[in-house]
Amino acid sequence: MANEQRGRLTVLLALAANLGIALAKTFAAVITGSAAMAAEAGHSYVDTINEVLLLTALRRSERPADSRHPFGHGPERYFWSLLVAVCIFGMGALFAFLQGVGALLGKGAEEASPLVGYIVLAVSAVLEALSWKQAYKETREHARERGQGFLDFLRTTDDPTAKSVLFEDSAALLGIVFAAAGLAAHQLTGSAFGDGIASILIGLMLTLVAFLLGRTNRELLIGRQARPAVLDGMRDMLDGAPEVEMVVDLMTMNVGTDQLLVCARLDFDDSLGAADVERACARLDGELHDKYNEVYEVFLEPVPRDDPGLRERVMARYGRAADHHYRRERG
């Protein structure tokens, strides 16, 4: 719950900052006639829309499980976060490209009152920095809670919300630098060429951000495996159970942020009775939930390790690694 509250605070702060910045940049774009400033205004409007999408993602993903959605609504967060990536490219990046190309072709307005632009960009930088600090703080705390480094957490996180805000704010700060450089180039040279190049750079930057966020959410929507450290820890726990002879197969999938589905096929000691196996399964279920907070549901299936059909399916999924595991366990 603490993570959810931090995430909502981060998004609300970004929403307020982006809306104010967008209005200020629009005013500055009209006054200065700068293409890069117009691109940045469009960028801020897109970011504002994105925060609304992220708030929707947080609210809808928290709905409880029901008969039609027995694993809950966690993937809603991935869907709405994917729309954020689409908006960043489809609205922000393409608008910046259009502004840049127009400036290069001489279709932009003559630059005037660049001082207004510099003031707006300076204020925007302060507001964006505050929003970025909150997003960075949340991301760092979440990484620390998981025992991961900051960059490793960004690469493997199953929470796209904080990552989206952090990437957006980072892009916004860099976009301000590009816009200021475009204003300065136009002021010093009298040519809109530098202004157009700055706008195109903003478009390229937004395209990169959209790609990175889209790739993250694509993997989560498809159904990504747990982190290697978590997966290895679960396998060791199950392998170490006195009733278990061998972990034949272990599959995990994110069904929401901090919600992990665990499915394991276990070869139990043949001397155990049905009641012993049932009690072992119940105990292992509890131990997995106790050790890993992200575990949402656990399914344990007793199977024989030498079943040829099962081995073939496991081999098809994991290849040589699975074959080595089988040979090692059979001695």
UniProtKB/TrEMBL annotation:
<feature type="transmembrane region" description="Helical">
    <location>
        <begin position="78"/>
        <end position="100"/>
    </location>
</feature>
<dbReference type="InterPro" id="IPR058533">
    <property type="entry name" value="Cation_efflux_TM"/>
</dbReference>
<dbReference type="GO" id="GO:0016020">
    <property type="term" value="C:membrane"/>
</dbReference>
<dbReference type="InterPro" id="IPR027469">
    <property type="entry name" value="Cation_efflux_TMD_sf"/>
</dbReference>
<dbReference type="InterPro" id="IPR040177">
    <property type="entry name" value="SLC30A9"/>
</dbReference>
<keyword id="KW-0472">Membrane</keyword>
<dbReference type="InterPro" id="IPR002524">
    <property type="entry name" value="Cation_efflux"/>
</dbReference>
<keyword id="KW-0813">Transport</keyword>
<keyword id="KW-0812">Transmembrane</keyword>
<feature type="transmembrane region" description="Helical">
    <location>
        <begin position="171"/>
        <end position="190"/>
    </location>
</feature>
<dbReference type="Pfam" id="PF01545">
    <property type="entry name" value="Cation_efflux"/>
</dbReference>
<feature type="transmembrane region" description="Helical">
    <location>
        <begin position="112"/>
        <end position="130"/>
    </location>
</feature>
<dbReference type="GO" id="GO:0008324">
    <property type="term" value="F:monoatomic cation transmembrane transporter activity"/>
</dbReference>
<protein>
    <submittedName>
        <fullName>Cation diffusion facilitator family transporter</fullName>
    </submittedName>
</protein>
<dbReference type="InterPro" id="IPR036837">
    <property type="entry name" value="Cation_efflux_CTD_sf"/>
</dbReference>
<keyword id="KW-1133">Transmembrane helix</keyword>
<feature type="transmembrane region" description="Helical">
    <location>
        <begin position="196"/>
        <end position="214"/>
    </location>
</feature>
<feature type="domain" description="Cation efflux protein transmembrane">
    <location>
        <begin position="11"/>
        <end position="221"/>
    </location>
</feature>
<dbReference type="GO" id="GO:0006829">
    <property type="term" value="P:zinc ion transport"/>
</dbReference>
